[in-house]
Design goal:
Blueprint (H helix, E strand, L loop, with lengths): L2 H55 L3 H26 L4 H29 L11 H27 L5 H4 L20 H30 L9
Helix pairs in contact: 1-2, 1-3, 1-4, 1-6, 2-3, 3-4, 4-6
Length: 225
């Protein structure tokens, strides 16, 4: 082999390696994004439910946070466990995989989400018809997403995190028996539903506060004598 051929072959190898590396990085980013969105949906459902229940029944900030965190882990684990059980794993085995895959991601989201809500003035103690609550929640979830994304990417690059559950998501066999009735929730659908719910809450609370402001600011009626 002459020098030119060897040199050309070396360049081909380098270009091929670069393409493979770029593909791996792109795949890693895509999987990390999907994994983070998946965790975010469960956390968001639990967080919103917990904060709504806590504020509705008048719990203290501490108990409200505890309830929101507990429900976030519950919904987060449930949404990850259902597809694995539908794919054929037993409940215990599926839950074991999910605990290993999702715990760090959910924990990161919960710490950041509640910290942001606590830092936004009045957000933690705001009522359900308070604009502050419905503005603070999406801000907190967005910051939590940004914090959990690098965590998920780090875990995926080392074959951990959602890499543990990804192999079961495309099970070739159709589910049989009772597994057929396990619902499948597309992450994009859940994200859209959560966004619509947050937007609806914001609109309702803003309308309520505008109506209250208009009522309080109305000039008193003139009594005719």
């Amino acid at each position: 082999m002459d020098h030119a051929t060897a040199h050309h072959g070396g360049h081909d190898h380098e270009h091929h390696h670069a393409r493979e590396s770029g593909h791996d990085h792109g795949s890693s980013r895509s999987m990390a994004l999907s994994a983070t969105l998946h965790c975010l949906t469960g956390c968001a459902i639990g967080e919103i439910a917990g904060l709504m229940i806590g504020t509705a029944v008048g719990l203290s900030s501490g108990w409200t946070i505890a309830l929101a965190v507990g429900l976030a882990f519950l919904f987060g684990y449930t949404l990850s466990t259902l597809p694995l059980v539908k794919a054929g794993l037993g409940v215990g085995a599926a839950l074991g995989v999910v605990l290993a895959a999702d715990t760090l991601s959910i924990a990161t989201m919960e710490v950041v989400d509640n910290l942001v809500m606590a830092l936004i003035p009045g957000a933690m103690g705001a009522g359900l018809v308070d604009v502050t609550f419905w503005v603070g929640m999406p801000i907190a979830l967005a910051v939590a997403f940004l914090a959990a994304y690098p965590v998920n990417r780090y875990l995926l690059q080392r074959g951990k995190g959602h890499a543990l559950t990804h192999r079961y998501h495309d099970a070739p066999a159709d589910p049989t028996g009772a597994r057929r009735f396990i619902p499948s929730f597309a992450t994009s659908t859940l994200v859209a539903a959560i966004a619509a719910f947050l937007l609806g809450g914001l609109v309702v609370s803003a309308a309520d506060q505008l109506d209250a402001g208009g009522t309080h600011g109305a000039a008193p009626a003139v009594v005719q004598r």
